[in-house]
Amino acid sequence: MPTTDPIAFTRQLRELRQTRRFTGQSVPEDVLADILDVARWTGSAKNTQPWHFIVVTDTSAIQILSEAGQFAGFLAGAPLVIVVAMAGKSPRSEPYDEGRLSERIMLAADAHGLGAGTGWFAPGAAGEERVKHALGIPDEMRVLQAVAIGYPDDADQRARTVIGGRKQIDEVVSRGRFGTGSR
Q: Does the pLDDT at position 143 exceed 70?
């Protein structure tokens, strides 16, 4: 039996947005512990749990992370970044697990009134290797993303609105066969 109002829960899922601007306020340790516990309990293919989380709060280290990819620059403004290091053993299932994991981290942060956003690192020496070197991550692991977490800056209204809206349900859903109506 669900302990949460299903309408409120699905609203949270629909309204979750990428946050890219944060206040300087730090994330309380008990909140971080809860977010990490949610991450730890995220499902994975064959329950392999192929991840390791590196919690980064040092501003100079976060600056290095922010320079490691075209879509990572906003990390520099976050008080806390969780780098997601994957085992690197299953190129088929780990990307699925990693996406599921980052969404769970973002939802857990949102439940605590925090904002979160996923930053992507450039593959190879330009980004991934730089992050590995900076954080001491073993060579065999994959490091493609990090989740920035913090209190959203009120000036970042873009993060809470969907620019362009969403496609209509009939454009993205078919029943029984591709191209049939959604009802």
A: yes
Which string of b and e fits 25-56 if b means at least 16 CB within 10 Å?
eebeeebbeebeebbeebebeeeeebbebbeb
Enclosing H/E stretch for 86: strand 80-86
Asked if residues 62 and 78 have their Cβ atoms less than 8 Å apart, the reply is yes
Residue 114 has pLDDT above 80, yes or no: yes
Instruction: Give me the domain span that covers residue 45.
Output: 18-153
CA 112 remoteness from chain centre: 15
- The answer to the question of residue 178 being in a domain is no
Domain count, the chain: 1
Mean pLDDT of the chain, nearest integer: 92
Q: Which pairing describes strands 115-120 and 51-56: parallel, antiparallel, or unpaired?
A: unpaired
Within a domain: residue 114?
yes
Which tokens in the block code for residue 120?
């992507």
Could you give the dihedral angle defined by the CA atoms of residues 23, 130, 91 and 96, in that order, rounded to the nearest 10 degrees?
A: 0
